[in-house]
Structure formats: structure tokens, C-alpha cells
Amino acid sequence: MTMIDAMTQQFGKVLVSGCSILLLLASGCTKLGPDYKRPDVKIADSWVEKDPKVKQARKPADYSAWWKAFKDPTLNKLIETARNQNLSLQVAGIRVLEARALRGVAVGEQYPQAQSIGGSVNRNIISKNAANSGVPFDTRFTNADIGFDAAWELDFWGRFRRGVEAADAELYASVAGYDDVLVALTAEVAAAYIEIRTAQQRIRITRENVVIQTRALQIASVRFRAGAVTELDMQQALSLLRNTEARIPDLQIRERQAQNRLNVLLGMAPNDLTQMLGTGRPIPNAGSEIGLDMPAELLRRRPDIRRAEIRAAAQSARIGIAQSDLYPQLSLTGSIGLQAASTSFSANGSSDLGDLFDGDSVFGSFGPAFRWNILNYGRIKNRVRAQDARLQSLLVTYQNLVLRAAREVEDGLVSFVRTQERAKFLADSVAASKRSVQLSLIQYRRGTTDFIRVLDTQRVLVDQQDALTAVEGSVALSLVATYKALGGGWQIRKGKDFVPSRVKKTMAARTDWGDMLSREKADKPRPWWKFWDSTGQPDTPDPPK
User: Fold this and answer.
1) Tell me: the pLDDT tens digits for 218-262?
2) What does the pLDDT read at residue 497?
3) Is the pLDDT of residue 523 over 70?
4) What's the CA gap between 342 and 243, in Å, rounded?
5) Over 60: is that where the pLDDT of 464 sits?
6) Coil, strand, or helix at residue 524?
7) What is the pLDDT of residue 339?
8) Which pick of 120, 258, 260, 337 has the fewest CB atoms within 10 Å?
9) pLDDT digits (tens, 9 = 90+) for 421-433
10) Domain holding 62: CATH number?
11) How far apart are CA 513 and CA 507, in angstroms?
12) Confidence (pLDDT) at 410
């Protein structure tokens, strides 16, 4: 019998025995632990805000590119740039790749966990004075072996299948985390841009008031030199002018700080964005109305809510993993190889192991084994209880997050509606203040009123115009906050990579990633997780109770 024939015969026996045992055990396989069920959440049937500016519809609304409602090409360009360059978003995308890799590890655990080829050559010298060495034997010999070892812990209790479920859920949680970062990013870019435009408008208005007050100072100076008034009028006019001018540096600080924040959001070092943004442009305005769908849509749209629920699903699977430690762990182990020993030497002193590859050198073993952690003094059960407590905590966190999401939308709505009302009142006040300044200057020239009246009207005008501009910015910011609370904006990543091509090239050059860096790689959900599609967008789950 040749060596190949012997190994083939032995391997055939091992294979037949192994398959028989596998078929026998597979017929009784089960999965421990609870199957995930979506928790009940309390959410209103409609929004509290009933103002006519809030248009409510029962069908899902499209907030995928809500910033385009402002009709500002510069804002559109900034958000696209941030989508491509923001570093925090890149970190979130890399976490998706990490989750893909970890899911591959979990899938691999379902197959033989230990597979190795090994070999050795040992020269042995045994003491003749050792115990029980009275029987003659060779005290100097060489032993050589080469073989293949394998060990396969069978997934009899669903331990590894639950691990795959948890890894699947963690992958989708990482996608939802990416979407959540993208939602926050688009809102932060829009908010920084609005703050820049608001600061620019406030600076412009302040400078216009500087011109008006400079004219009043000139009038007071002329009348003082003519002896019509005392120096008090001139000094008061100068004081008001300098106080108004002092507002400009503070507003310039705010503009520059907003630009610095925008630079970081765009993935750039702080620099002057004036050339990119321009000056003198109005505060973005998306109109006075907003369309809403039902509150229940938050569960489907908001990525942070999706992530919270998916993490709860992952934790549900971990309960089954912990429970599997209560039962015997069944496994198949085996090895096959060649082994030979020699006491003879060649002329150059080396051992003669030519019979290592002879058919009679084949050895092997195969069989089932089990290990059962008994007398564990409650440690395993308490680990199961700890996993169950973590699940309950995540479920309550999910429910609380739903309530917070609804509150954030309501906060944004009431701010959007009421701030518009305030802006309307301030606009009337500004119009009246402008007329008051004109009348007071006319009366002062004629000598029918004192300069105090002029100062008061100009001071009120500065304050009211500045307040109106700030409120107009607040209207836009409250709308941004509402869209962010509604969970819009993450949809723009559909059909695009999670990380830029340059980052993928760097990672591929450093490590063999296979096809995991490809956008076309399908992240198909497992049957247990039926209401999420491969992009992380929910299909049509049952409406929440």
C-alpha cells in the first residue's frame, strides 16, 4: 500500500464517520435565546403645532435634500463638499467597513474553528539512568512528523448563528450611525452658513446706522459751531456713534468663528472663505411654511432611532450566546498525518528518515467530544441575566429616544412658527423707527426738539434692526433644526461609497480587503431582520402601536 492510498483510505473513513455524526446532530439543532421583537412605543397620531404654516399630510414626506428649499446654490455646494471631505463622516464610513469585517469573522465561526498543518523534526537523547530504563532500548533517535489537525465546535445550540445575527445587526447599526452623522453634518453646515450670512447682514445694517449717526453728528457739530446748541449735543452724538461702531468687531468675530467651524465641517484647515461665500448676500429663506408627515414616520426615517433599535436586536441575540454556555459544547476533532523515527545516521551525521512518506507512517484520529461547564456556581446564569438587563436597558433607551425625537420636532416647529411672528412685529417696529429717525432729525434742524429725541430714535433703530436681522437668522436656523429632527438628509449617500476613493486606495494598499471596500458588495439582511433593506432604509414595517 502506498502512502497516498493509505492516507486516502484513512481520510475516507474519517469523512464518512464525520458526516454521519454531523447529520445526526444537525437534526436536533436549535437556537437558544429570544427572537427579537420590536418594542411598543408611545407616539402621538399628529403634531401638537396646528398653525396654518405647518402643513400636515398622512403620506411620507421627502426630506432627502431639504436644504434645496432655501434655493441657495452656495449652500448646495457646501453640503456636497462636506459630504465628500468631512473627516468625522469618513470615520463613520470606516466603522461600516470594520463592521463588515467583524461580520465576516462571525460567519467564519460557523465552520471548523481550528485548522492547521504542522510538522517537526526532533533529535531525542534519553538518559540511561532514568526510571524504568532497565529494559534495553535506543536512547538516541530522531522523530519526525507532519500532519493536519482540525477542531469543529458544532453549533448545536445556535451559539454561532446568534453571533452572526448580532454581527449583522451591528453592521446595520454602523450604517445607521453613518446616516446619523450625515444628518447632523448637513444641518451643521447649513447652520454655520446661515450664521455667517446673519452676521454679514448685521454688520451691513450696523454700518448703515453708522452712516446715519455720522450725519447726525455733523448736524450737531454745525449747530454747536453756530452757537445754536451746547457741546453736549455733539458729545452725545459722538458717544452713540462710537457705541454703534463698537458692535462691528463683535459681529466680525462671530462671522469668522462661524467660518472656522464651516472650514472644519468641510474637512479643511481654517481659512478665509470670503472668496468662496461672497458678501452682501441675504440670509437664506425657505418660505414661511413647512410640510410634515405623521409622527410615526420618525421611526422609519431617523437614523439614530434605527440604530437604537438595531442595537437592541443585536443584544437580543447575545442572550442566546450567553445561554448556550449552560449546555454541553459538542465538537468534532481529528488529525491525520505522517510520523516516523530513526536511530540510524548517514555518513554526514544526519538521520535517515526516508520511511516518513511510506504508507505505514500514516496516523490519524477522529471523534466527537464534549465539554460541559458544571458546578459554575451561578456564574453562567448571572451572565445571562446581565445580558437580558442590557437588552431591557437598550429597549427603554429606544423608547426614550423616540419621545425625544418627537420633542425635538415639536421644539423646532414652535420655534419656526413663533419666530416668524416675532419677525413680523419687529419688521413693523423697524419701519416705525426709521420714520422716527427721519422726523426727529427734521425737527432738530428746525429747533423744535432737543437732541435727546434724535439720540433715542437712532438708538432704538439700531437695536430694532439688529434684532430683526438676528430673528430672521433664527427663523432659518429653526427650520434647519426641524429638518434635522425629522431625520432628513442621509438619503444622499445612496449609491455612493461610505469612504472616499482615496481612503479606500490607502487601505487596499496596506491590507487585503477583498471586495469589502466595494460599494457593490451586498450587505443583505438575514431573514430574522426583515424590515431593513440593504441600504439601511426601512421597508414597510408594521406601524408602531
Assistant:
1) 999 998 998 888 899 999 999 999 999 999 999 999 999 999 999
2) 86
3) no
4) 103
5) yes
6) coil
7) 82
8) 120
9) 999 999 999 999 9
10) 1.20.1600.10
11) 8
12) 94
Output DSSP code: residue 335: E
Run of H or E including 363: strand 362-371
- Cell digits of residue 258: 462661524
Length of the chain: 545
Pairing of strands 329-342, 290-292: unpaired
Residue 426 lies in a domain: yes
Tell me the CA distances in angstroms from 396 to 35, 41, 229, 297, one per residue in order. Answer: 18, 9, 74, 19
Mention every residue, 6+ apart, whose C-beta is less than 8 A from residue 271: 263
Q: What is the DSSP code (8-state) at residue 356?
A: G
For 75-131, the DSSP string reads HHHHHHHHHHH-HHHHHHHHHHHHHHHHHHHHHHTTS-SEEEEEEEEEEEE--TTST
- pTM for this one? 0.83
Higher-pLDDT residue of 244 and 5 is: 244
Residue 63 falls inside a structural domain: yes
- How many domains does the chain divide into? 1
With 0-12 CB in 10 A as exposed, 13-18 as middle and 19+ as buried, what is 117? exposed
Q: How is residue 459 written as a grid cell?
A: 438708538
Answer yes or no: are the C-beta atoms of 212 and 458 closer than 8 Å. Answer: yes
Structural domain includes residue 526: no
User: What does each C-alpha distance from 367 to 26, 61, 159, 332 come to in angstroms?
Assistant: 16, 61, 21, 6
CA 103 from centroid of its chain's CA atoms:
17
Q: Is the pLDDT of residue 74 over 50?
A: yes
Distances (CA, A) of 79 to 36, 70, 275, 357, 480: 37, 13, 17, 68, 13
H or E stretch covering 235:
helix 231-245
Task: Please compute the mean of the pLDDT values over residues 137-156 and round it to a whole number.
Answer: 79
pLDDT of residue 330: 83
Residue 400's DSSP bridge partners are none
**Domain region containing 295:** 31-122+142-328+372-510
148: nearest Cα among 21, 333, 1:
333
Residue type for position 267: G
Cα pseudo-dihedral 259, 262, 264, 269, rounded to 10: -40
